[in-house]
Amino acid sequence: MPGIVAPMRNTVERLDKPSSYAMSKYKKRKRNDTHTDTTRPASPDLEEKLADATTLYVGNLSFYTTEEQIHALFAKCGELKRLVMGLDRFTKTPCGFCFVEYYTHQDALDCLKYVGGTKLDERIIRCDLDEGFGEGRQYGRGKSGGQVRDEYREEFDPGRGGYGKRFREDQEGFADEYAGGA
Question: Where is this chain's protein located in or outside the cell (predicted)?
Fold first, then answer.
């Protein structure tokens, strides 16, 4: 029909949107939050927390990337307040993520814009705004102590320590079965 104009859709994704991990965690928390205590103030919405967030979650790092390399790259967008490397819960070695905290929200947004999606140690890194670092979050969530995704990886990735842990265990189990049946 002439005269009817469809609304314009924004084709550019917001840089300051919550990460998929943060959203799933927030939704799960909301679902499980069944308290009826009206004296306790309502917790702020995730979008409100991220509106002035100064912390970034940085993922897909090589296990061999150093704090110095991360600091050199991320300091290009503003003064860093602190840098917390993600560690394997058991071995206390880097496991592919970190938290970068800036002094201002604008510096964090600039970092999302200019550093997110770039290469560091031959890996494309992922940056997301984070609600803030809390003690204990520096450890991997996987059963092996590292990252969950690394446990299920089936391809060889030298930057992440080779094959995934579960894949290696399955292959070793298959080899043992095969050798035992011969």
Answer: Nucleus
